[in-house]
Amino acid sequence: MLPADVVKRFEIREGERFRLADVDPGETLGLDIGKDEARDMLAAGVKRLDDLQERLYAEGRWSVLIMFQAMDAAGKDSAIEHVMSGINPQGCSVSAFKVPSLTELRHDFLWRTTCALPERGMIGIFNRSYYEEVLVVRVHNELLAKQGLPAKLVGDDIWKQRFESIRDFERHMARNGTVVLKFFLHLSRDEQRKRFLDRIDEPDKRWKFSLGDVAERQRWDDYMTAYEDAIRNTATEHAPWHVVPADNKWFTRLVVAAAIVKKLEELDPQYPKVDDTALAAMMEARKKLVEEDGGPPDGKKAKDGKGKDNKSGKDNKKG
Ligand code: AMP
Ligand code: MG
């Protein structure tokens, strides 16, 4: 697993001075490791994540919202797949946000994502998010027209207002126990070209290719400007951005895994403690279970006190 201080290099908590040009999409911090080693490192991170997620779920207090934004072919889907691979699916939900439906367009721009926010104890992953509202919608102004807002509310400062709404909303989430982590997988234009060619050339990858993606690529610079401005305006202490180099998928996954582990370790969720009365009742139940069959199956004794009540808290919740 990558150490926490590596994560810090890609973490933006204060957006004002952020410049996209300062992050090299090809960065690997001089780490020159083979495929196997990268896989082992990721496996260690995933295992740690699994343990932390179980405690988050058992504790049932915090929610964790993880958002992924990126240009096409930057590896959002595969980062989600690999990083979350070891996690209990019951503690996690993934929502992908595509072109909004008519119903979604008839609500405010935070509505559809709000409905998908994770419950307490859950990790919610957003594959794209309300940030599209200041990215694709900003690059393609005609999309804003489709939203049917009252004309007098759509002025030059609409993006500034949306950033403000997003900041307010993320502060609201933070105050209500939802921890927000945002990832921008930063791909170079040249690497995107290679990956598109790969998708066209390999029959099993063709389903991923869309002609529309090539059209979006023509607006690359506009997208980068929009991303930079969005990050500058919405990177905060309680909802940091992580701008993760994305030209090497193995490196992207390691950074993403380490960033999530770092945040969960800070939260340090605990298995609920069983109080003395409940523990006494539990021991009574145990005694009966043991007696049912004439004695303990393998001579096991109940652990008194601490270790045991942890375990039972978890089992209660999951059962
Ligand atoms: P993909 O995630 O590659 O399958 O594509 C989903 C498409 O939906 C992307 O082109 C996004 O830009 C687009 N999309 C997502 N959210 C919005 C939105 N709020 N308004 C317009 N387009 C969106
Ligand atoms: Mg796409």
Topology (elements, then pairings):
Layout: H1 4-9, E1 11-12, H2 35-59, E2 63-70, H3 76-83, E3 92-96, H4 102-105, H5 111-114, E4 123-127, H6 136-139, H7 141-145, H8 158-175, E5 178-186, H9 189-201, H10 211-217, H11 220-234, E6 241-245, H12 249-267, H13 276-292, H14 306-318
Parallel strand pairs: 2-4, 2-5, 3-4, 5-6
Antiparallel strand pairs: 1-6
Helix pairs in contact: 2-12, 2-14, 3-12
The structure holds adenosine monophosphate and magnesium ion (MG).
Notes on the structure:
50% of the residues lie in helices and 11% in strands. It has 14 helices and six strands. The protein has helices at residues 4-9, 35-59, 76-83, 102-105, 111-114, 136-139, 141-145, 158-175, 189-201, 211-217, 220-234, 249-267, 276-292, 306-318; strands spanning 11-12, 63-70, 92-96, 123-127, 178-186, 241-245. It is globular, with a radius of gyration of 23 Å. The structure holds adenosine monophosphate and magnesium ion.
List the defining traits of the structure above.
319 residues; alpha/beta; Rossmann fold; 2 domains; six-stranded mixed β-sheet; globular; disordered C terminus; binds adenosine monophosphate; binds magnesium ion
Brief sketch in words of this structure:
This protein is an alpha/beta fold.
> Could you spell the SSE succession in H and E letters?
HEHEHEHHEHHHEHHHEHHH
Strand order of the largest sheet: 1-6-5-2-4-3
Low-confidence stretches: 306-319
Q: Estimate what percentage of residues fall within beta strands.
A: 5-15%
Structural class of the helices, strands and pairings? alpha/beta
What does the average pLDDT come to? 93
Estimate percent helicity. 40-55%
- The CATH topology name of the largest domain reads Rossmann fold
Largest sheet: 6 strands, mixed
Hetero groups in this structure are:
adenosine monophosphate, magnesium ion
Our Rg estimate from Cα atoms comes to 23 Å
Helix count equals 14
Shape: globular
Number of domains: 2
